[in-house]
Amino acid sequence: MAEPGTYEGGSADLRTGQVEGVAVEGGKFPPVRPTAEAVDERNEDVVPPADIGDLIGSLEPTVDATKLGDLGGGAAGEGVEFVVDTPFGRVVTFTGIPPDMSGASSENVVFVSGNTFAAFSTDGGINFTALDPTTIFPSAPSFDAAGNPLDNGLCCDQVIQYEPEIDRFIWLQQFCGTGANCLQGINMLRIAAASPVDIANSNGTAWTYWDFRSAAFGLAGAMDYPDMSLGNSRLNISVDAVGVGLLVFRIPLSEIAAGAAVNFDFTNPADSVNAYGGHLSQNTGDELYWAGHINTSRMRVFSLPESSGTYSWRDIDINSWPNADYSSLAPDGTDWLSFLAGFPGSAVLGATRRQVAGTSEAWFAWSAARGGGFAHPHIQVISFDTATWAVLDQWQIWNPDLAFAYPCLATNADQEVGVSLGWGGGGSFHANHAVGILGDFVVWFSEASDATINRWGDYVTVRRAARSSHFSGIGYSLMQDPPPATSSTFNPRYTLFGRP
User: Fold this and answer.
1) Tell me, which fold does domain 6-498 have in CATH?
2) Confidence check: pLDDT of 90 > 50
3) Mean pLDDT in the chain?
4) Domain residue ranges in the chain
């Protein structure tokens, strides 16, 4: 059995660029059908599986199993209250799969997105109004002056944040690549910002946006599977440079608030090959973190201080985890983790930072396979002391009867870590969404799915809420349509939860 250790890594300087802002209002653009990767099953990217490392520790659970709590129409329990729990499937229309749910909340306005729509609420998430993103922004395929394609139109993978310091919702959209499928050729990410007041007064149509094309980062290919997080003074964005590695860039929040040109700096994606498919630390303060796997016994952890133009990384040994079999069957035999086994696999999707008793902690979470003492796929959770990079704790979200996957993490003002995730399988459960607070060893769901698809993800979301001791969770259930129909319908849900 190997002895754990920490190993020196490397560092690199950021590169820089600038993008002009454009203001829109009124929702006057002609609607177009998103050329979503999933409409035509056109996203077949793969995260290379982590190699099997020398055994450290054991492949056994180290904590009690995580239980399921059924809200049963709004009932809370075990120290968690559910202030709002609103399904809004009757309001919105999905154009592709998977749902890819994201969202965030200010004091009264809630803004959410899915594949590929948006919706907002002005009464704290009780009622929602649907939006068509393609009428708010120019969303058709675009071309340069010579007629060469620059993207193939709005696609998918929307992400939402709310930053109270500048009082802005921030909306990220991915456009389709110009090649034979959405992951080929070149494309762009669009980042838009609006205040809660502007959203309410304009019926969700007044925004300023910035387009970040492949060329802005010196990329010859497309970008996919983006994420966003907020620091003290920066908006942080990550995205896979397809076939290369994870690209991370950041923008001053003050420039987003100003609504004009924004300056950005960015990493070399080739430095983050091991973090491909991964996401960024939420509520990250004055330093940003992201991570990936060298193998099943060693992680590579990256850091980028807000005050620095240099990012760095180091390799850290951890307890080993299983990485071979991700299958998890619903009652009808559908493997709800079939797609996850290839993408995003064991990429580090959950990440957040918290400060406890003077210690800065970076938390990471990822989907792990069945094996060892785990009868079903589960989630590994690890925390590091960012001053020494010592492992503080490593444990699991697991259950002997079902699987957990697709973790998303966030930290509230009380330095508790909230989670949004998927669960199901074991031959007994359809795939479902749940939320909770780590350390409680229970996650809560409102509506149990009665149907399953084999691409459940690709992500669900949890954010620190405007009530800063609470969390906003966004996920969905999948429900059979009434007979004689044999189809099923996504039912997305917004949940505001936290300690009483």
Assistant:
1) Methylamine Dehydrogenase; Chain H (2.130.10)
2) yes
3) 95
4) 6-498
